[in-house]
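$ ./design --mode recover --in tokens.txt
reading tokens...
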């Protein structure tokens, strides 16, 4: 399979590419990574594969239809996996327009190029082509305690500019399948964590702030609940959906690990107390600082992933205890990566997110 991966230098995209290029050589013919390299894109995430003849990196925008069309034709691509997105809720509250530009307009133009490419393919390549769109559980809104997790039939009720922009992109993907017959697939995932996570997000922010003896900012009472999905489990699920998912279907991908934010932060502190103890013998937990909640903060997200388990046989390999320990170990072993990305790409602000 020859694949175009968009946003492949970001957190989830780079983990997907690393997994694919580290897997059986017969799985991948060519893999083209198209990434604009905004603040969260980091080519260093994939430097191990710079010499791999199957891999090519192209810096560019998914909204550049001529560029996408050229890549699709030149590399005879069989599939598109669209990770490219603005994804930070706090940033969307401060400035919604970039989220609409990338997540809505960018996806629209990517779909345009994909449709033209697909329409011109001969059979059987036309029948095998796939457009897989990676989305989020935030499009579904918020849940109260005790409410059943969201399944794929849940109506969309996005509550942040970020979630609204992703909902818009999901609807465009569905419309292109229904109107033009473009063979699309959509995945909606819960909160990811793991290696190469950009340090504005909750878990890496807490790890790095703790090691630097900075405050660990927790929004409000910290009781916002999220379902946590280890990123390598997510990457495996996407690959499975791409190869075996039913066209025009949506698959929810969850980690089966609902936890309140304050519990996540406390667990990170416990692991760091054991693995990188402070010289003064005090706990990192004393750095926890409750800050004003962000506007419109959703209280709970929870994914029902029974459809992908039932139809495709997927289930996460990691539970939260094993996944968070692997994550802390990765950040402790990769301080140089953390220092580089923090200094060069994130010097002016440190934001938490859930």
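writing sequence...
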């Amino acid at each position: 399979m020859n694949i175009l991966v968009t946003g492949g230098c970001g957190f989830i995209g780079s983990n997907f590419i690393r997994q694919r290029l580290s897997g059986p050589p017969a799985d991948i013919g060519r893999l083209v990574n198209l990434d604009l390299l905004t603040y969260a894109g980091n080519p260093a995430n994939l430097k191990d594969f710079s010499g791999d003849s199957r891999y090519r990196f192209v810096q560019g925008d998914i909204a550049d239809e001529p560029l996408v069309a050229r890549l699709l034709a030149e590399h005879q691509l069989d599939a598109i996996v669209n990770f490219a997105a603005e994804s930070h809720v706090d940033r969307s509250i401060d400035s919604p327009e970039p989220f609409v530009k990338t997540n809505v307009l960018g996806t629209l133009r990517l779909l345009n190029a994909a449709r033209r490419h697909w329409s011109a393919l001969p059979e059987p390549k036309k029948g095998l082509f796939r457009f897989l769109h990676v989305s989020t559980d935030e499009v579904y809104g918020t849940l109260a305690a005790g409410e059943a997790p969201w399944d794929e039939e849940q109506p969309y009720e996005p509550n942040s500019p970020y979630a609204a922009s992703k909902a818009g992109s999901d609807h465009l993907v569905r419309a292109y399948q229904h109107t033009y017959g473009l063979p699309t697939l959509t995945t909606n995932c819960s909160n990811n964590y793991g290696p190469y996570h950009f340090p504005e997000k909750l878990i890496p922010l807490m790890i790095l702030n703790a090691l630097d003896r900075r405050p660990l900012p927790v929004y409000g009472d910290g009781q916002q609940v999220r379902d946590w999905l280890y990123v390598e489990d997510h990457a495996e699920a996407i690959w499975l959906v791409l190869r075996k998912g039913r066209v025009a279907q949506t698959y929810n991908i969850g980690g089966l690990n609902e936890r309140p934010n304050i519990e996540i932060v406390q667990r990170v502190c416990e692991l760091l107390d054991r693995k990188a103890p402070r010289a003064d013998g005090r706990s990192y937990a004393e750095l926890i600082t409750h800050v004003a909640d962000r506007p419109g903060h959703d209280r709970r997200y929870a994914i029902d992933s029974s459809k992908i388990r039932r139809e495709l046989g997927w289930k996460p390999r990691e539970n939260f205890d094993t996944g968070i320990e692997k994550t802390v170990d990765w950040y402790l072993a990769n301080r140089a990566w953390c220092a580089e990305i923090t200094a060069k790409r994130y010097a002016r602000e440190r934001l938490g997110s859930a």
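exit 0
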